[in-house]
Amino acid sequence: MLYSFINSLDKLLKFKSAAAHCDIPCKIYDPSTAQIAALSVIRFIDIINELEQPLSVANTAQLARLVREKEIHASKVKEEVRVIWGDYFKQPQFDQFPDTHALVHSIMLTASKCKQHIEREHAEQLLALVNQFADSFWQTKGIATYQAKSPYPPSEHVVYPDLKSA
Fold first, then answer.
1. pLDDT in single tens digits along all 166 residues of the chain
2. Do the Cβ atoms of 145 and 159 come closer than 8 Å?
């Protein structure tokens, strides 16, 4: 009923159309949060694997906290990538990077592996995939990227936007 009323009113008054690619058209997207979360997953796995065996009560409590944070950050990767993929990427970006859907799906699956396991290789793969996503994101904006070692542990390579080229 309300839709019919507004639709009739629109036909009569000819409202101007508004278009936005997301819930709120803020135009602020940046994959760096996903990259930092992926780096954090690697770091948590490193710390978990450094715990002395057998685990003391204190280290058992530390392990529980580390596993919890690892899983939170793996979920954060998924959420941040999902928002950019769902709200920012549209047909022009998909035309430019036709493998985006497969890449995002790989990120989701790999982040889930990171939640399920503590093998560093899964976390390194997650960061590599997120870096690939970040690179394609910045390219859709016409911004070149470069790779550099992150300035904090685990000191892995991260894709950064070359803002001088913008």
1. 666 666 776 777 777 765 444 566 677 899 999 999 999 999 999 999 999 999 999 999 999 999 999 999 999 999 999 999 999 999 999 999 999 999 999 999 999 999 999 999 999 999 999 999 999 999 999 999 999 999 999 999 999 999 987 7
2. yes
Distance separating alpha carbons of residues 150 and 159, to the nearest angstrom: 9
21-27 long-range CB contacts below 8 Å, 24 or more apart?
21/87, 21/88, 21/90, 22/83, 22/87, 22/88, 23/87
Q: Is 160 helix (H, G, I), strand (E, B) or coil?
A: strand
Neighbour tally for 76: CB within 10 Å: 18
Half-sphere exposure of 104 (CA within 13 A, CB side): 19
pTM value? 0.84
Q: Which of 6, 38, 54, 67 is nearest to 134 (CA)?
A: 38
